[in-house]
Amino acid sequence: MSGTPPYQDEGPQERRAGWKGLSMEERTEYVEKYAPLIKYLADRLAARLPDHIIKDDLMSSGVLGLIDAVEKFEPDRGILFKTYAEFRIKGSMLDELRSLDWVPRTVRKKASDLDKLWRKLEQRLGRPPTDEESADELGITIKAYLKLLDEISVINMLDLEAFRMESKSGERESLDIYEIIEDENASDALTILGQEELRRVLAEAIDALPEKERLVVTLYYHEELTMKEIGQVMGYTESRISQIHTKSVVRLRGKINRYFEHRGKGSPR
User: Fold this and answer.
1) The whole model's pTM is what?
2) For the chain, does the N or the C end have fewer beta carbons within 10 angstroms?
3) What is the pLDDT of residue 183?
4) Which residues form the domain of 50?
5) Residue 15 burial by CB count (10 A; 0-12/13-18/19+): exposed, middle or buried?
């Protein structure tokens, strides 16, 4: 779902000094004006989700996010209302997805086990393992290995999307960053590290990714291309790009979790 989001450009009229004094009618006008953002963001999010996720549920939560944006916007922070509204809408949609608990625990465990396998192979080989080497280590065919990547791909969509929102706006009270580092046995990352250091750690982890994975992460989260568009750029199928994306996010989550664990134990990086 590519395309230009509604209200790409805004003028000074959106930075209203008297925002807190808006009447109910004026607030309603803003909700109506920016309502197209809800469908735009729901379409983009739904394109990355399993078929059983209902887009209407995302849009309903997006409406609440837009209303929340109108209520809480503070123009003196120097952020355009459209930027803040997009952040709140998307945040509400992500909250809705998390409340559904739609990723089975067994799938999360498979992703964790795969990260451990890659670490072991990387230490042995001195480089990231290929898909064939990973499949051999697991004792399965390359077809079964790629099917495994497809299976665990559903857990990765929220992770860096949530972080990208937080790092762009810096406004959210409830930080979605936990989606990146979620580990039942890990220490509270934000207790150990400040947000700026967390961003630095993630940036370093991205820089350490294999070239293809780093490019997919950049195009997907920074350039906001779809999997299909990235495939056209890189000369791969959409399915293959999804598999590369899955590997990159599993690696990133694993590296960040290990960093937090070391810091929590007082160990050096």
Assistant:
1) 0.60
2) C
3) 40
4) 15-100
5) middle
